[in-house]
Write a structure and sequence with these properties.
By secondary structure, the chain is an alpha/beta fold. It has one domain: CBS-domain (Roll). The chain has a 4-stranded mixed β-sheet with strand order 1-7-6-5. Strands 2-3-4 form a 3-stranded mixed β-sheet. Strand 3 and strand 4 form a beta hairpin. It starts with 11 loop residues before the first strand and ends in a 9-residue tail after the last helix.
């Protein structure tokens, strides 16, 4: 019987994060530059939350684009992020994300940021698993 992999095996590993006092436009540019849609948020070097592209867009839609220059990450981010250890079994992470309607999990090793696991990572891992399970054994899928 195969062992369920840990979230480490499918997370996006990166050291990217943003400070809670940065402005939202800086967060948006940083996300675009690094091609990510979620950023862990730190305050005084400590992990305190997560901000997503969706959070930013919702807030700007509610307030209007002119408010963008005044918004700080603190005003938009989710301060109670879903945080799991790097060795957490993947099925536990997926179940919690689904039950709580969460789009991302922050992955830590001890108290250090190790990466993110998002719905995109889950879809990519599921697609890989399907390909591995259903790929023809002889390499020829013609009937």
């Amino acid at each position: 019987m195969k062992k369920i992999p840990s979230v480490k095996s499918v997370m996006t590993a990166f050291p990217y994060w943003i400070d809670v006092e940065e402005d939202v436009e800086t967060a948006r540019k940083f996300m675009d530059e690094h091609r990510v849609r979620h950023l862990p948020v730190k305050e005084n070097g400590k992990l305190v939350g997560v901000i997503s592209e969706r959070d930013i867009n919702r807030k700007l839609l509610a307030l209007g684009q002119l408010q963008q220059t005044r918004l700080r990450v603190r005003d938009v981010c989710v301060m109670k992020a879903y945080v799991v250890g790097i060795d957490e079994p993947l099925d536990n992470v997926l179940v919690n994300m689904a039950m709580d309607h969460i789009g991302s999990a922050i992955i830590v090793k001890g108290e250090r940021l190790a990466g993110m696991f998002t719905l995109s990572d889950a879809c990519r891992a599921f697609a890989d698993d399907l390909r591995d399970r259903f790929r023809p054994l002889n390499g020829n899928d013609a009937a």
